[in-house]
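Late entry, evening session. Most of the bench is empty. Finally got around to the prediction I had been postponing all week. Sequence below, unchanged from the version circulated by S.P.
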Amino acid sequence: MSLTNSIEVNGVELNEMWIGGERNYGFGKVKILLKKSNKDEINLFNSGIIIDITKKQLTISGEDEYITALSHVNIENLGVKLIRGDIEPLVGREWSEKGSGQKISQTAKICITPGSQLACDADVVIGRFGVWETLKD
């Protein structure tokens, strides 16, 4: 396994990042250290959830298995067979002419909460902002 110390984001090579709201809290300054692997799948946070990393989007196979949600899971077009846990609306803060976080999103996603168990017919992808959702064609 080889290591690299940078990633490319929108054409910019990054070798360090500041993570958190400001410099005084959050993780602060972190260095990027990635492990290169020859595997086609990973065990997500050692949770037993296997992610196929060969596809364009990180994909979790939902067929014939119970999945423990590690993030919010959008139930739209999910083909849910079983939910053991809670469902809640998920809204967020958006950028507007007033600045960041000053506007609440106008639409809510109905989601299964993190920690809940589910069984579904569809493959699930890790979408924007970490929300799990069905793969859109």
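Two things to note before I forget:
Residues 1-38 form one domain.
The CA atoms of residues 21 and 28 lie 9 Å apart.
Will write this up properly tomorrow.
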